[in-house]
Every structure is written in C-alpha cells, then in structure tokens.
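agent> fetching stored inputs for the NDP docking request
agent> found them:
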Amino acid sequence: MSYIERVWEKVSQRNAGEVEFLQAVREVFDSLEPVMERNPQYEAAGILERIVEPERQIIFRVPWVDDQGKAQVNRGFRFEFNSALGPYKGGLRFHPSVNQSVLKFLGFEQVFKNSLTTLMMGGGKGGSDFDPKGKSDNEVMHFCQSFMTELQRHIGHHTDVPAGDIGVGARELGYMFGQYKRIRNEFTGVLTGKGITWGGSLIRPEATGYGTVYFAEEMLKTRDEKLEGKVCTISGSGNVAQFAAEKLNQLGAKVVSLSDSGGTIYDPAGIDAEKLAWVMELKNRRRGRIKEYTEKFGGEYLEGERPWSIKCDCAFPCATQNELNGEEAQTLLDNGCYVVSEGANMPSDPDAVNIFIDSKILYAPGKAANAGGVSTSYLEMRQNSSRNNWTRERVDKKLNEIMVNIHAATRAAAAEYGEPDNYVMGANIAGFTKVANAMLDQGIV
Ligand code: NDP
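agent> prediction call returned; pasting tokens
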C-alpha cells in the first residue's frame, strides 16, 4: 500500500463521518501520488500525517439573548490548521449547516490556497451554526459580541487573523471588531474585511469575485480568447457572486443568472450594472430574496433550482460547497459550457470535478480561482502594519498580478507532472509543495 493510501486509511478512520473534510483530503491526496514518489523526504518527516491534523481546534459555547429576552445558545469554532507559512488566516462562516466537518474542509483547503498565493499566510477557518437570516440587527450584534468574547483569547494580528465568509459581511465584521477592541483595548488589524474608515482596504469586498473572473480571463488567454461577449451563469447572490457579476459586466460579458437558497433567476437580456445595483441593495440592505428580481425586471424564476441547466459559455459557482453535481456538470458541457471558475469553496462535487477534468475544458478549482479574497486580506494586513491606505487602482492592480501569478504557478506545477491543463492537480501540487517544504525546514512540530 502506498504512503498516501496508508495515511488515507488512518484519516478516514479518525475522522469518520466528516464527509466534507474527507472529500477535500481525498481530492488533494489524489493529486499528490507522483509528488510522494519523487520526494521520499515527505514520508520520512510524516508530512501527510501532520498536514491533515489541525494544529489547534477550538470549540466553544456562544450564549446570547434574543429580542424576546430568551436565552439562545450556538456553537462557535476556530480551526487553526497550519502556521508553517505565517499567522493562521481564513474566514468565519455563520450558517446553520456549519459543523466540524465543514469548517475542517474549509481550513484544510485554506492552507493550500494561502500557500498558492505565495504570500506569508498560514491557514485556518471558523464560524458558528448561528443563522443571521431573519434576525434583527440587534440580535446579530448580541451574537457577534458573545462570539468574539471567547474568540478574542485565541486570535491576534500576529497569531490568527479571521475574515468574512458566508453569513459574515460588513455588518458582522464591524460588531466583532468593536467587541475585540473593547475587550483587548487595542486597535489592530485582527480582522480583515474591515470598514474603509476603520482600517479596511479598498477592493477587499470586491476581491474574491474580481479574482475569480481574472482567473477565468487568464485561462481563456491560453486559447487566445477573452471574456468579452461570453454568456455567463453565476450561482449565489452574496459577496462573491455580486462582484464576479460586476467584473464580468466591466469586461463585456453577459451575466444571465444569480441564485440563492430559494432558487435561480434567469435573465436572458443580461443582469447589467443597473440591475446589479438593485440586487446589491436587495441583498446587502433589505436582506430580501432573489426571486424579487423577476417581479422588478422580468426574466424567469426557477424555484428550488440551481443555474446549471441554463445554456452558457462560462459558469461561475459562487454559492457554497457541493452545489454542482455530476449530472449538472454533464448538462453544462452538453450545452456548450467550456469555462468553469469556482468562486465558492469546493462547489463541484467529486463526480463533477472528474467530468470537468476528463472533458479538458478550462476548469479552475476554488483554491486557485477564489484566492483573490485572501490575497487582498493580506494586502489589508500590510496596509494596517504600515498605517497606510493604498488607492483602489493600486490594490486592484496588485490583485490582478497575484491572480496572474497563481494561474502561472498552477499551470507550471501541473506541467512539471505531465498534465499542463489540469488545474486541480497543479493547484494541489503547487500549494502542497510550499507548505510541505516549510514544514520540513521547521522540524517535527
Ligand atoms: P454570502 O453569505 O455573501 O453569500 C452566499 C450566497 O450563497 C447567498 O446567495 C446564499 O443564499 C447562497 N448559499 C449559501 N448556502 C447555500 C446553500 N446551502 N444552498 C444554496 N445557496 C446557498 O457568502 P460569500 O459570497 O462570501 O461566499 C460564497 C462562497 O465563496 C462560499 O463558498 C465561501 O466559502 C467562498 N469564498 C468567499 C470568500 C469571501 O471573501 N467572502 C473568499 C473565498 C471563498 P442564501 O442567502 O439564500 O443563503
């Protein structure tokens, strides 16, 4: 039995039932077989056994009082996965589906993603099973304050720097930052995605969506093509989806769908800048449902459906994990789609991933294509350290350069192992190699 399979056996026993985490580990392991054959030093140092085990796992009670005066209890988590390359870095997710498996998969992916950016960041992830949907601002504030009252013991600008993710946007980050500052009596860049007047970076809100589109543009360049004129489907209508749509519009593509957990809107005329501004108001201020779009602008509402049956050239999954299965992947291909750039983390399930790889379309996994968010968080940390504010143009240019470099590094690693068009293999190998070498240098810790 190979080294990888021996470690896999142990990981799947030790983390039995953690479906999402095991899915993420299996995908990385599948790419690493040739790396292990060429590099016996990794086995000798137990790199795989160590890399699948978070350095620290923090689970805590989050009590808070709702608007009716009733006590509520949620569960809070932070998985500090790997610090070989820098302070732990990765978002906080507030969603009822959050559990140990989901956050461990996200933390594990984050280690490789952050490594791929070539910036100095370790990987971590956290969050809670709290659902901000349907809660008043007051309830969200009380929850965030209670969550941070415990989390603040474990984080710090040189230790662990969380950001947003699903259910954690500007409002939640503000409440958490306020509570951190109050308890610790310090104003530091302990969170990224901060408001622009209190330490945030221009372009951070846009970065993940923009970066995903920049990555698609790089993939298209390998075929001497551009996004201009392409018909694009997007899933989700939150932070990543909104700014992916904005950048696609700017580059002359036509966005025809957005979605939320209720269903999909299909607008064959295109969701232009004006319609998108309305969606941003609906989602970020009024906190309404995407189906209201068709009442305002027409088009079709596909209740309970995802956008993958809609004919397109390029697809941008920007909602959540496992939101695109094998059957849907096949439908996309049958309808002529040949670019898939993942804004979300692990949105394609293993069957879909295999179909995309076998078909040789331009398919970018989230850990490469959505790394623009964390990269710009790093730029925010740099601005906080030097007490500087960079211009929008400077941050956007740097973001674009980082995405171009990630694209090049991913292709180079895949080519080194004989599969230049396999972005999954390239991202896993390039991400792994840098962390593994740093772990070797730092001894068995
Ligand atoms: P938001 O909370 O802003 O938006 C999430 C969107 O996805 C909403 O439209 C939401 O719909 C939808 N969604 C969430 N869960 C489900 C579900 N189970 N089924 C169907 N739709 C769902 O989150 P973000 O835009 O920040 O994050 C989206 C994805 O991008 C996630 O996978 C995240 O990990 C990833 N990501 C985010 C980064 C960032 O900088 N924000 C960085 C890198 C990756 P509804 O409102 O109905 O729940």
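agent> quick read of the result: The longest helix spans residues 392-416.
agent> awaiting further instructions
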